[in-house]
Every structure is written in C-alpha cells, then in structure tokens.
Amino acid sequence: MAIGGVSIASVGAVAAYTMEKKKPTVKSVLRDFIIGTILVLMLLQLLPDSAQTLVDTVRSIPSLAPSFMSGGGGVGGVGEMDIQVGIPKF
Asked: pTM for the whole thing?
C-alpha cells in the first residue's frame, strides 16, 4: 500500500517540479501519497482470491526455504483435497 503511495507521490512531485520549476509543497505530496495508497487498496480489492493466495505464497517462500533444504517435506499432503462450494469459476 505504501509502495503505491510513494510511487504516485513521487510522480506527482516530479510533474509539479517540471511544470512549475519550483519545489512541490508538502501538502501536495501528502495528497498524492494518500491518493496512491487508496488507489492500491482499491486495486487489491479487485484481485481474485487465487491471486491473493499467490501473493501470500510468494511472501511466505523465504520462511519455507529452510524446511525444504533440510528435507522436511513440503506444505500440504498428497491426498489432501480442497472442497469449494458455490458457482464454478471457469
């Protein structure tokens, strides 16, 4: 979330500097930061659950690495099934 805020604020600050040739104000940078953070939060709401699960899995890879390296096995069993109820998503 902060990444979106920082990126939008930096783009806004660069645009203000190149157009007006003066330093951007703190008020405009904070406004752009809040807009960027809200935009990222809104985009995260649009991600499907599978994409969110993918993001969580990628974030957990560093903590799983020692168990794979030591031969401790993986996460989840071979015979484990995931039952989903509702409208099928093709």
From this structure: 0.50
